[in-house]
Design brief:
This protein has helices spanning 12-17, 19-28, 43-48, 67-80, 92-100, 131-140, 157-169, 194-206, 221-230, 244-253, 263-270, 284-287, 318-321, 325-336, and strands at residues 3-7, 33-38, 54-57, 84-87, 105-109, 120-122, 177-182, 210-216, 236-239, 256-260, 274-278, 295-298. By secondary structure, it is of the alpha/beta class. The strands form two sheets. Strands 3-2-1-4-5-6 form a six-stranded parallel β-sheet, with helices on both faces. It has a six-stranded parallel β-sheet with strand order 9-8-7-10-11-12, with helices on both faces. Helix 7 packs across helix 10.
Length: 337
């Protein structure tokens, strides 16, 4: 086995969950070159996953939108002379790509009518398996053993230096202990109430031991401003001020990260930092943290969240509101003991 193609998924958290796939492949085929095909928005994460030798970007809405560009991509894949392709993505189009690229062994889920394009058809896992296990199941079905199922991301020395400079500018000394709070989420129902975040910030800052940093994407800036408007104290604001790799370095610098079920929660866990995950409508059995950092999960059974809930027009978001500041602080104190 010389060249292996992994067709990856499209979203930040899911790509993080795919990271143990590459470790297992490299352990099974240490001499092989492992190449990953994925969309542009996850490139930075892929660059941080160990054991990926090359990344091929499929820009389906940009550079590769036209039929001619897609054919050009297929031709470039054919020239690589891959021995095998593992399709973590369930897209019919991607299955067609690897088929037309002439890859002799094609392993993936037999869904969406794409079985014709696969040489090894994988049956989906029964029940509510963790997202990471769905990806690992693809390679396990081919006979590859998985020794370590933890997610892992590498932090660059450059990113560490850049974050150190940011924190120094905020009067954070190397010996100071940091708590990072990520209040954002990719949909509103996964967000803990801003009033609770404000109370949590005040409590941690009043202890005098912690430097509290609020982080997030540029679109989370209004959320940060709302939290500040409810807070007595002002935490350090790095919302929208870091790249993805710098955010990883910040998470690794932290003593603990507090976040809802979102990409930054999994970033933190995957760089080895302890986390508190605040879960409401989603299920930790499916999307809980899988990294080497210790993970404390907070979720209350309110009836409607016994299975993952995607009722985006929920009128009261009771599953997140039911988790109190005291609940979070209890978990926090147990972890730092």
């Amino acid at each position: 086995m010389n060249n292996i193609l992994v067709v990856n998924v499209n979203w930040l958290g899911d790509v993080i969950f795919s990271s143990p796939v590459f470790r297992a492949l490299k352990e099974a085929y240490p001499q092989a070159r492992i190449i990953c095909l994925a969309v542009p928005r996850v490139k930075e994460i892929l660059e941080s996953i160990p054991f990926i030798d090359e990344i091929i970007i499929y820009d389906e809405k940009g550079k590769h939108a036209s039929l001619t560009a897609k054919l050009g991509l297929i031709y470039s894949l054919r020239k690589k002379k891959f021995d095998i392709a593992f399709l973590l993505h369930r897209s019919l189009t991607r299955a067609l790509f690897v088929f037309l690229a002439g890859i002799p062994r094609r392993v993936g889920y037999d869904t969406k009518g794409r079985g014709f394009f696969l040489t090894h058809k994988v049956k989906p896992l029964a029940g509510e398996a963790h997202r990471s296990d769905h990806y690992l199941h693809v390679i396990e079905s081919y006979g590859i053993s998985v020794r370590d199922r933890r997610t892992q991301l590498n932090v660059t020395s450059q990113s560490k230096e850049e974050v150190s400079g940011m924190l120094t500018a905020e009067n954070v000394r190397p010996e100071d202990e940091i708590v990072v709070i990520n209040p954002g989420g990719n949909w509103d129902l996964k967000r803990w109430p801003v009033e609770n975040f404000a109370k949590l910030v005040d409590h941690l800052m009043n202890e005098g031991r912690w430097k509290v940093v609020i982080a997030g994407a540029p679109q989370d800036v209004p959320l940060f401003e709302t939290i500040i408007s409810h807070s007595k104290d002002k935490p350090i604001n790095l919302t929208g001020k870091t790249t993805l790799k710098q955010l990883m370095a910040l998470m690794q610098r932290a003593r603990l990260v507090i976040s809802a079920d979102s990409g930054p929660l999994h970033l933190a866990s995957s760089v080895g930092t302890d986390v508190i995950g605040i879960f409401g409508p989603t299920r930790p059995e499916i999307t809980g943290p899988r990294g080497s950092g210790r993970g404390a999960i907070l979720q209350h059974d309110v009836g409607c969240n016994r299975k993952a809930c995607y009722h985006l027009k929920c009128p009261d978001n009771i599953c997140m509101k039911s988790i109190s500041v005291e609940d979070v602080l209890t978990k926090f104190n147990k972890i730092i003991e």
